[in-house]
Design brief:
The chain has strands at residues 2-7, 10-13, 18-26, 33-38, 45-50, 54-56, 64-69, 74-79, 88-96, 99-102, 106-111. The chain is globular. Strands 2, 4, 5, 6, 9, 10 and 11 form a seven-stranded mixed β-sheet that branches. Strands 1-3-8-7 form a four-stranded antiparallel β-sheet, with no helix packed on it. The protein has 112 residues and is mainly β. Strand 4 (33-38) and strand 5 (45-50) form a beta hairpin. It is built from no helices and eleven strands.
Length: 112
């Protein structure tokens, strides 16, 4: 069984920062964890991921940083210089045995 729970979302002014957390529980080793976001009426989009390296979408590169603490089974998404277009529900995801496993999401709202 694998479960993911996100936290850390909220309301912030443009230029501000938030740190999202994704706590995972699993009897299996979790390697790759990715962050995605979705706004109403749009497809969910990939933002960043961490495995043995980190990767970022160009829209967040230089502003967002993904990291992990294996001792706490937690992956973080540090988001700096947030802009209104970053407003979305943010989800973390992993994949095991060919199945995508998603958290329930956390809302991030950036006011201008």
């Amino acid at each position: 069984q694998v479960q993911l729970v996100e936290s850390g979302g909220g309301l912030v002014q443009a230029g501000g920062s938030l740190r999202l957390s994704c706590i995972y529980s699993s009897i299996y080793t979790i390697n790759t964890v990715s962050w995605h976001r979705q706004t109403p009426g749009k497809a969910r989009e990939w933002v960043a991921e961490i495995s043995d390296r980190t990767l970022y979408d160009r829209s967040v590169k230089g502003r967002f940083t993904v990291s992990r603490d294996n001792g706490k089974n937690t992956v973080y998404l540090q988001m700096n210089d947030l802009q209104p277009e970053d407003s979305a529900v943010y989800y973390c995801k992993t994949r095991k045995f060919g199945t995508d496993i998603w958290g329930v999401g956390t809302q991030v709202t950036v006011s201008s």
